[in-house]
Amino acid sequence: MRDILTLTVLIAVPATVAAIGCNSSPGLTVTGNVDIDANGTPTGFVFEQPARLDGAAPNGAITGSCTLTSAPAQSAYGIVVDLYGPSAAEGRALRSITIMTRTDAPANGTIEADLGADTFRGTCTVDTPLVTADGRVSLHTEGCSIEGAGETATVALDLTFERCTVQTR
After folding, report:
1. CA end-to-end span of the chain, whole Å?
2. How would you classify the pairing of strands 63-71 and 165-168?
């Protein structure tokens, strides 16, 4: 399930960053936010405007890829997204996040996040309020508890991707 149902977000930014990487030509973009609170230490990222994630992103911007995989026999979709930040994160900053979910089983979503040098994991409901055959994907969760390094962190996210690569299995 992991190979078709993974959303990987790798970033290297301190606390919350407003990432703006617009470009007028078509390409993968994201808007929204990921907010994580690790025992009172907030981290995450914010895409206030559509941010380019593909190779056409401005120098120093977060880049990445998104693949939407259709499983017609199951009437379900899986999502794979990779985001890469421009530099190493410091302290408890969000360095990466992996989100796995099925559109037909949102309660079985899994979130894994690297906060600084520690990895946190948990099972959560990850809703997919928008998934279209042309590559538009929205993901949403709030109050998701993930554990690692003897601590608990809480995740909330609301992300919308445009122009993901679409595959059929």
Report:
1. 12
2. parallel
The answer to whether the CB of 57 falls within 8 A of the CB of 26 is no
Report the half-sphere exposure of 136 (CA within 13 A, side-chain side). 5
Condensed to tens digits (0 to 9), the pLDDT of residues 110-124 reads 898 888 889 999 999
Burial class (CB in 10 A: 0-12, 13-18, 19+), 125: middle
Give 82-135 pLDDT, tens digit per residue.
766 655 556 777 777 888 888 888 888 889 888 888 999 999 998 999 999 899
